[in-house]
Amino acid sequence: MSTPFYVSPEQLMRDRADFARKGIAKGRSAIALQYADGILFVAENRSPALHKVAEIYDRMAFAAVGRYNEFENLRIAGVRLADMRGYSYDRRDVTGRALANAYAQTLGAIFSSGGEKPLEVEILVAEVGATSADDQIYRLTYDGSIADVRGYAVMGGPAEQVADYVGEHYSEGISLAGALRLAVDALGHDSSEVRQLEPDQIEVAVLDRTRTQVRKFKRISEQTLARILSESRPDTAPSEPSAHADGAETVDGGYESTADDAPVAPADDDAPIAPPEDPTDNRPL
Fold it and tell me: What is the per-residue pLDDT across 248-281, written as a single tens digit (0 to 9) for each?
């Protein structure tokens, strides 16, 4: 009788963690930033239909990187949980902390189970409050670990390199335009060669506390994103910062803050889910 193959629990957990980390690192980065009036989400995403950022409930949003089918199932489960709690009790009883705890339990149970592979995902659950101090951002990893972060959070791809760039330029109370340009620049500094990302390569959404509607989530249209990014480029910027035609002033270490609120497109929650353009491209989102 042959001796059964044995792997220590420590080695098994290390192997499962390495498997999940490698899968997540193959994807592209996503950033969440607190700005003066809410929370901004910016993700490098070349698909117009497969969203990495989405609404969960009135004041909450969800962002993820990794395997699309895996984090999409988590998003749907979160929407159902929030709807059920809000319907059974009160809409104010639906909180980001409760949703993050539910996600942590699910991820932790799958990671520690020997019968299925760990999920190759990292997710963010954010809730916008009445003031900046009340905002909440929770980052959850593949093993169910949960962290309450302040200011900004980066996940997926070369997250450490992108986070270092954000940390060097981020300041509390930054404007929406400044935060958007900072996030796009940070995503372009994910390697030794700096890239210039175009509006059609980026997915942008915000939780805006100044909205009068109950729903605080909205997406930034590609046209608005292109206008804001073009204003910040050296070849289109005016020679004297004090002579802006639109009354913008330079703040936060060179990132401009426009005086007018940028128009945004309404959330397209019913957008059809389409497969990637290249069926052989299995790279995680």
Answer: 443 344 444 444 444 444 445 544 444 444 545 5
Residue 1 is predicted with a pLDDT of 57
Distance (Å, rounded) from C-alpha 53 to C-alpha 18?
25
Measured N-to-C along each axis, helices 176-188 and 159-169 cross at an angle, to the nearest 10 degrees, of 140
Bin 11: left if φ > 0, else alpha if -120 < ψ < 50, else beta: alpha
Q: Give the span between the Cα atoms of 190 and 185, in whole angstroms.
A: 9
Question: Would you call 245 helix, strand, or coil by DSSP?
Answer: coil
Residues of the chain with pLDDT under 50: 234-267, 270-277, 279
The pTM of the full predicted model, rounded to 2 decimals, is 0.79
Q: For the CA atoms of the chain, what is the radius of gyration?
A: 20
Task: Classify burial at 99, counting beta carbons within 10 Å of its beta carbon; exposed 0-12, middle 13-18, buried 19 or more.
Answer: buried
- Rounded-to-integer distance, Cα 281 and Cα 138, Å: 30
Cα distance between residue 72 and residue 285, in whole Å: 11
The answer to whether 191 touches 158, Cβ cutoff 8 Å, is yes
pLDDT (tens digit per residue) in 43-64 = 999 888 899 999 999 999 999 9
Q: State whether residue 130 is helix, strand or coil.
A: coil
Separation CA 216–CA 222 (nearest Å): 19
pLDDT value of position 133: 93
Residues 200 and 19: their CA atoms lie apart, in Å, by 31
- B/e letters for 263-282, b = 16+ CB within 10 Å, e = fewer, are ebeeeeeeeeeeeeeeeeee
Report DSSP letters for 136-156, one per residue: EEEEE-TTS-EEEE-SEEEES
